[in-house]
């Protein structure tokens, strides 16, 4: 059977937004923007809810996703004991900025998260989701494997990140919900 590609077929394909995929250009899912982690709508699995605020700035440039995370750790009051005395201790609010680059074409990227956590990652589009496979090597020397699946909601106001983590000690599944912020 012979297929004929007509001008109207090309117009329909391009109109559906599939042209960039067929041409190998920009993927139709653009994650660019400023996003805030919604802790209450997220599921941290076996772990506790974080006591911090996370704002993620994403810039997507056709192949790479450039991420800047600003993490603000909340201040707290604690008690410490010195002998028999209990002393109040105030832990001030502090912030940390992490920058890293994730590929979308399978190219391996090397990043440092926090002050010293080394990682390698490879990203790829799977349908309309960005899947990132990463390996982290903590100071103890063993490897932690992590797979993230980033999906942008149809209204483009929420990124849902499904996270699967495997280490020699445990397996953790989480869902992080990021909402578009201004």
Keywords for this entry:
182 residues, mainly beta, Lipocalin, 10-stranded antiparallel β-sheet, two-stranded antiparallel ribbon, 2 helices, globular, disordered N terminus
Any overview of this molecule?
This protein is mostly beta strands and 182 residues long. The protein has one domain: Calycin beta-barrel core domain (Lipocalin). Helix content is 8%, strand content 55%. It is built from two helices and twelve strands, in the order H-H-E-E-E-E-E-E-E-E-E-E-E-E. The chain has helices spanning 7-15, 19-23; strands at 33-37, 52-60, 64-73, 76-82, 85-91, 94-103, 109-113, 117-126, 129-137, 144-152, 158-166, 171-180. The strands form two sheets. A ten-stranded antiparallel beta sheet has the order 6-3-2-1-12-11-10-9-8-7, with no helix packed on it. A hairpin with a 2-residue loop joins strand 4 (76-82) and strand 5 (85-91). The longest helix has 9 residues, at 7-15. The protein is globular. 11% of the residues are buried. Mean pLDDT is 81; it is low at 1-25.
- Biggest sheet overview: 10 strands, antiparallel
Q: What helical percentage do the residues reach?
A: under 10%
Radius of gyration: 21 Å
Question: Class by helix and strand content?
Answer: mainly beta
Name of the CATH first level:
Mainly Beta
Look at the structure and give the mean pLDDT.
81
The arrangement of helices and strands along the chain is HHEEEEEEEEEEEE
- The assigned CATH architecture is Beta Barrel
Work out the count of structural domains: 1
CATH topological fold name: Lipocalin
């Amino acid at each position: 059977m012979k297929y004929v590609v007509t001008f109207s077929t090309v117009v329909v394909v391009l109109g559906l937004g599939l042209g960039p995929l067929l041409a190998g250009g920009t993927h139709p899912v653009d994650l660019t923007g400023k996003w805030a982690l919604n802790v209450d709508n997220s599921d941290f699995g076996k772990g506790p809810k974080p006591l911090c605020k996370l704002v993620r700035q994403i810039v997507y440039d056709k192949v790479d996703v450039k991420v800047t995370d600003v993490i603000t750790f909340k201040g707290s009051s604690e008690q410490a004991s010195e002998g028999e005395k209990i002393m109040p201790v105030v832990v001030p609010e502090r912030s940390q900025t992490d920058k890293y680059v994730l590929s979308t074409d399978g190219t391996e990227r090397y990043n440092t998260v926090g002050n010293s956590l080394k990682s390698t990652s490879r990203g790829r589009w799977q349908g309309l989701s960005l899947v990132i496979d990463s390996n982290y090597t903590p100071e103890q020397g063993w490897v932690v494997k992590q797979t993230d699946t980033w999906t942008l909601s149809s209204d483009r106001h929420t990124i849902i990140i499904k996270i699967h983590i495997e280490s020699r000690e445990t397996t953790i599944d989480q869902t992080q919900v990021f909402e578009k912020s201004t």
